Each structure stands twice: as C-alpha cells, then as structure tokens.
Amino acid sequence: MFFSTLVSAVQGLVPAAVTVDMLVVFALILLSLVLFATEWLPIDVTAIVVMVLLMVLEPWTQITPQEGLSGFASPATITVLAMLILSTGVNRTGIVQHIGRKMAEYAGNSQTKQLAATISVTGPVSGFINNTPVVAILVPVVADLAHKGKTSPSKLLMPLSFASMLGGTLTVIGTSTNILASDIAAQLGRESPGLGLHAFGMFEFTKLGVIVFVVGAVYLMTVGVRLLPKRVPAEDDLLEEYALQEYLADVVVPADSSLIGQTVQEALGNDDLDIDVLQLIRYGEQFLEPLARKEIHENDTLRLRTNRETLERIMRSEGLTFVGGPRSESDLHPGEAEPVMVEVVIPSGSFLVGESLASSTFRQRYDANVLAFRTRGKVVRDRFEDIDIRVGDTLLVQAPPDSLTRLVQNEDFIVAHEFEDADYRTEKTPFAVAIIAGVVALPAFNVLPIVVSALGGVVAMILTGVLKPNELYKSVEWNVIFLLAGVIPLGVALQQTGAAALLGDAVASTATFLPAIGVLWVFYLATGLLTSVISNNASVVLMIPVAASAAQSIGANAFAFVLAVTFAASTAFMTPVGYQTNLFVYGPGGYTFSDFLRVGAPLQLLLSVVTVAGIAFFWGVGA
Fold first, then answer.
1. CA distances from 480 to 27, 75, 133, 361 (A)
2. Which pLDDT score is estimated for 13?
3. CA–CA dist 93, 140 (Å, integer)
4. Per-residue pLDDT reduced to its tens digit, 287-336
5. What's the CATH fold of domain 238-327?
6. What's the rounded mean pLDDT across residues 360-388?
7. Which sequence spans correspond to the domains of the chain?
8. CATH superfamily of this structure's domain 341-415
C-alpha cells in the first residue's frame, strides 16, 4: 500500500518519457552506487540487497523471483566459479611460483630487468588464469625479488597489479569482467537480434588485447617507473618500514613488582591496556608465543608493543625498568634463519573481512601478535583491536615459524614473503597445464561452450589429483560469486523497464556534436570513472545495456560499444579500490591513494585513446 501510494504521488511529477518503473530502477542503481562506493556493506552483501529489492518491487522493476535469482544460474557466474577453482589447481602445482623464481634469477639486481620480468610474466599468465589469483600468488614472489635485488617493492608491486589487468584483456577468461560482459552481450543479442551482439569468442579481441598490453607495458617501463614513489625501503626491514621503534620497548621486572607470580595473560592481558608481550627473555633464553600462560619471574625482560603513554603508566604502577628496545628487525629476532615477522594481506573471501582482530580471535588461532595495521594507505600502530578489517588491509604479524606456515597455507591470507619449504604438487604440473590448454582450446574451436569446458576442467583436475575434492569449495571466492549473482538482475531491470534505452538515448544525443567514435570514447571514459569507485563487474552490468542502446540510437556498431565498456572496466588503474588486484598490492607497496591516481590516470587516458582507436580499426564504429 505504501509503495502504491508513493508511486501514484510520483507519477504525476515525471515527464511522460520517464516512467515510474524507470525511476524505481534508477533509485536502486543510485542506492547500489552509494553502497558500493562507501563500502558501508561488503560489496557482495550490497549486491544481494539490491537483488532482493528488485524482487520485492517487482510491479515496477519487472523482475520476477525467477529473474531475480537467475544470476546464480547464469553461465557467467558458473564460468567464473569454475575458473577460480582451475586457478587454485594451477596454484597447487607451484608452476607460477616456479616461473617467478626463474624471473628472479634473470632479473638479478637490475631494476629495469626486475620490472620487465614482472610485467612479461604476469601479463601472459593473466590471460589464461584469472588475474586475481595470479596477483595473489605473485605478491610474495615480487616482494622478495625486490628486496633481494635492493629495489623498493613500491617500484614493482603496482606494475604487477597493472600488468595483470592488461593481461586480462588478452582472452575472454582473463578476468571475471570479460566473462560477465560476454554473457550480457549474448543475452542482449538474443533479445534484440538487430544489435548483432553475441558471446565473445575465446580469442575474439586478443589482437586488441595485445596492443593494449604492449602499450601499457611500454608506459610502465618508461613513464610509470618514474612516477612510482619509493614508499617501502629497499632493505628488507619491516620494523623500520612501519616505524615501530617508538612502539617497542624492553622492560625488566624488579624483585618488588606485583607482576611476579602472575601469568602474562593475568598481568598484561587486559585489552584496555593495549599491550602485547612479544618476547620474554630469562637469563639469555628467549621465549616466543604462546606466552599467555607463562609465569613472570624476577629479573625477566619483557619485550612489549605499546604506545609511550601506556608504557610510562605501566612502568610507574609496576616499577618496571626501561632498558631500551629493538631498533631493527635483526635486533628483534637475532639469528633467525626464517622470518618470524611478515606482512599478511587480507584478500576478498577471507573470514577476517568485516571482523576486527578482537572479534576474529586471530591472535589465538595463530599464536600471533599483530604489531601494526595498514588500512587504505594509513598505518595504525596502536589501538587497532576494534578496527573493522577490509579487503586489502595489511597486518604486520609476528608469529613462530610453524604458525607462519599455517598462514601461508590458508587461502584467507596472502603472506607477502615466499617460504622455501612450501608444499606444491609439482608432479601434477603436466596435468594442470594440459587441462588449462583443453579448457582454452575447446571453446576456441567451437567444440564446447566456455562454461562446459571450464566445468569439465574442474572435473579433470579432481580425477587427476591436481585438486582434492575437499579443496573445491575453499577455492571459490564466494563474495565474487554472490556479487555476480546479485548485480546481474539489475542489468535485466535496466533493459526491461526501458531505463537502459532512456540513458542510451540521452548519451546518443551527444552525436549531434560528436562523431560516433567520440560517443564511443565517452562511454570508455564514463565506464573507467565508474569502475574507479564501484566494482568492475557492477560497471559492466550497468553500462553495457546503456552502451548497446546508445549504439542502436545512432546506428553505430553495438559490438564496438560493448567492447569499449568491457576493456574500460577491466583496466581500472586510477584508484586502489577500482580493481581487486590493486588492493592486494596497496599495503605491501606502502602506497597512498594518490599514488594510484598519479600513475594510473595517465595510463588510463592513454589507453582510452589506444583502445577506442583499435576498436574503430578492427571492428569499425559505424554511423
């Protein structure tokens, strides 16, 4: 009743060309844009909220429950799910890591060679394995390569992310964006045969992708490398990098201290104190985690992480004696063969996303201390227990070697250091390579659709032992799947209510003073800007129907417009939140938000010209 009354009131206020159905869809789009941009809710939750609202408001959105849930059965969603599993299978064999080590051997101490190797390995691999897992795999490889070669990781990690995006334009399976765009194009082609749209072939736009990759690589090797800052020191010392010296202190427990006889947990475990006991040193012997139940004795030295104010308060109240503190990582853990301090990046799908360190019990699960917290370019060195963790946040973690091994093996984390004893199924490498080749070849020769080929590849990986059955569900980034399933009906609503046609006509009006190629360029820029603040997948869902309608209005080639939107959404360089791989390098590279704008904006502008010109040359624009 309320909605009906509201709609009746609005109906008399809008122009005849704009229906109330359109206004309702526009309102939902505006809501989704605000939620995506602010991250008030996780993006996958936002997508599900929008999907539910589309079904609840069916009289105006024209989305039935069957259409609202159609995203879960979409070939695009199933294909992305299968490709994520296949990428995990390749990861289990260690083949990408092996290529990374060869890359390190070639590059040595030359920054130019390191950068060239990073780009030349990442790009082609990202064309055949979903580019998001590729970056997750290569972050520790490239970070170690930089430190060993005395180069700042900041000079290599952003190019790693950008190269993965550029490589993702080489084939239809390079990114989830391409797969989704292909499915939307096929759907529009079925509904409006006059548009001439169809699902993308495996290598249909590879020739343009190669040009985009080469131009992007040349930019990164020449202009980009000069614009990149050295945020992280070349020397591999995390203590100095995070400027933690003022937050670490060694104190001695005197004979009259009330702490004597208490356990570490009883004495200093109060969360209100914001104190972590990193080490207990007794007569020259060092004790690491777990320390909670360790009893404190007279003359024990406690190594604490806390701020100066809290340290002074605890020293006064307990009579502790300050005896200095570590100034570098080697002081903190002298003589350690393996590192006991690493950066841990939080990827999408991690159980920590949306949690805090306090609510997640991260410390207890991994016997780990968090020394610092890097979120969206800001380093927090104290009072970070209750900060909500987001995708791309980086934790500086101290833990025993066995705990770090568990972190490395857990797909909830990206540990920005490669451990030599990682357990890979190298004997399964030939099977994994053959399966990926088959998944690519069968659709390329029109033997099977991509979705069938990809699912067949998953089955083959299980049967050959590349993957174990219990690893299937762990391999899927379920937030990506729910995001796709949630936003796909929004594109359907745009189309069915005529909202896409209305927006398309509005943009098409620019054809009165712009040629068709100019309108195409406008779509490329608009998609790039939109992707900079919301999900790339949401961008193609919103923009492809509008682009196709605009092309139809001006008599232009609809395929050219769809391709421009796809490439723009797949190459979002200007912000760290524009593309998931940017978030993976944000923390380990020590970048600020403005770093992405400074390096990414010229590249995005350059590629807007190159891509639009390439589309016009290969496929024509028409009109």
1. 24, 14, 13, 25
2. 37
3. 17
4. 766 677 888 888 888 888 888 888 888 888 888 888 887 777 766 665 55
5. Alpha-Beta Plaits (3.30.70)
6. 83
7. 2-69, 73-233+429-618, 238-327, 341-415
8. Regulator of K+ conductance, C-terminal domain (3.30.70.1450)
